[in-house]
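FAQ
Q: What does a multi-component entry look like?
A: The components come first, one per line:
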Amino acid sequence: MSRSSDALVLFANEAFYTAFGSGDYAAMDDLWAEDAPVACLHPGAAPLFDRADIMKSWQDILTSGPNGMMSQDARIVARGEVSIVVCYEVVGQGALVASNAFVEEGGRWRMVLHQAGPCPGAPSMPPGERMSTRLN
Amino acid sequence: MSRSSDALVLFANEAFYTAFGSGDYAAMDDLWAEDAPVACLHPGAAPLFDRADIMKSWQDILTSGPNGMMSQDARIVARGEVSIVVCYEVVGQGALVASNAFVEEGGRWRMVLHQAGPCPGAPSMPPGERMSTRLN
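Then the predicted structure of the entire assembly, as tokens:
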């Protein structure tokens, strides 16, 4: 798995937060894998394994429009046919931490796993570095 | 990735909960990958990316001895060089849900990611089926 693949995986991770933060359901739907098994573990909720159920959950979350959710300090934890990114999710003054996994489907990286949970906070970073990414 | 590899991945996932539930720090230490990047996201805590920090956290958790934590309804969400298992974590009357990822290192599957978070509860299952596993 090359560094250029790392960049594409991190790009997919950013695309997820762009869809999430802007309330763009169509982009979110496009991002999730269609052929591979998928799982979505929203904070405090039962896990979802059915793609239709997962997309219904995102429709409910995104229906209120843009929420400003963005990622911070994304890093690739594992790379291969399945690649995993861990990042902070920053919204307002709060932060969560997430594990996001992607597989290649139709020549692009699509999401197969999202788990997010609360954490004490994201590390303080100058605003200009908030969208920066780190590679292991 | 063959079905027999699935079984080995699920075996590693069970080994994680055996170490966790029995308070076996040595087994927990043996389970985590040593060469690959690792990440551990305990509920409500900042993510840990340094193996020494992760093992220190497990030492703190396991120091009080057996806690009875066990997995339920484990299923493989993604398979490949990196394989991901999602399962319930059941302890007493409570349940969490976890994403666990493994890579092959030295001929066996070792953990590279653990994220757990609270969930409303695990599905009701007869006690005899609690340790059963499901493959996608």
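Q: Is there any commentary attached?
A: Sometimes. For this entry: Chain A has a mean pLDDT of 90.
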